[in-house]
Amino acid sequence: MFDTWVLRRPAFFILPSIVIIVALLMSASSPALSLLSLPQILTKLKTFLPVSYFNTPTTAPLSTLSTTPSVSSTTTISQPPKMPKAPVYFFSHGGPDVQYNTTHPVYPVLQSIGKEITQKVKPSAVVVFSAHWQPENVGPDEIHVNNAEKTDLIYDFYGFPPHFYKATFPSTGSPSLASHIISLLAKSNIRARGLSRGLDHGVFSGFNVAFPPASNPLAVPLVQVSLFNSENPQAHFLLGEAVQSLREQNIVIICTGMTVHNLRDMRLAFGQPQPMPYAVSFDNALKEAVEQPDAEKRKEEMVRVLKRPDARQAHPWMDHLMPLYIAAGAAGGDRGRQTWTMHEASFAWAQYRFGELPEEK
């Protein structure tokens, strides 16, 4: 009557078995049932059920079975695409006049870089290191982080027209991001503390060109971090390395300074048809070092370039160059590329980007 597969499957008898047990236990016509023990009841049930039902099952108990679906060795599990790391930028920012000198060749260059950041990278936040913030009255191994949400500007220059001291740049800080940066620095054994400080012109002058509030606003949190109060390139490499994980959160790191910066010679060279020789030679040597494809080789060459005879001419004090070393450290293994430069008097205006832009969708 039944196919053989039914007779081989004990589960076919489970429901009848339950019915029989309940009937035996609940039937008032079986008073002798109360005198039977559980083994005796099971013995009686064997007269109704096949022997195979009471044998030890050959399958594993439910509690020992894996709930993970089996995957063959040829099965490919799709993973969500990994978000590319945000690029790192170095701005040669110029003086406080850069935001007013719309005819200078660097003006459209900074505008273009700003649009690249806001329209292609679309960062979740910006962290900036400026040549104009080296903490005073502290040791050479301490970093400060602006942890204020709202700050004023610092007009850290003198001798300029009155309207220069009325410049504005709307920005909003992020105490939580600042705290996170401090914790990253602590993990790298870098002493750091938060404080409230305004944005210096190394930030707001160039940013007013790259991110003009009326046409290309930087509508994300902005946190400024200091340099070390030193000319130690290795320390600044490590500073960049300590914060490079921010890039995985699509936070853009911008380091601002100048690739050649000699204020002492500015009056001698300004207006001359040819730039100072060291402005050309040092800027070119720096480009070759930064664009080394291997990260370790890049670090070695960038340290070596500081020992060149023209290095002290290009930078009597290295404050405007150290941000480039932070950028190279934050880049990790990503290559650096000079996107533009110009040699003018005792200055060089090289702009750099480390890493790739996100692919167009």
From TrEMBL:
Q: Does the keyword Ribonucleoprotein apply?
A: no
The UniProt record lists the keyword Oxidoreductase:
yes
Q: Pfam families attached here?
A: LigB
Q: Where is the Extradiol ring-cleavage dioxygenase class III enzyme subunit B domain?
A: 89-339
Listed A to Z, the keywords are:
Membrane, Metal-binding, Oxidoreductase, Transmembrane, Transmembrane helix, Zinc
Cofactor(s) required, per the database record:
Zn(2+)
Origin superkingdom: Eukaryota
InterPro entries documented for this protein: Extradiol_dOase_DODA (IPR014436), Xdiol_dOase_suB (IPR004183)
Transmembrane spans = 12-36
Regarding protein family, the annotation reads:
Belongs to the DODA-type extradiol aromatic ring-opening dioxygenase family.
Q: What is this protein called?
A: Extradiol ring-cleavage dioxygenase class III enzyme subunit B domain-containing protein
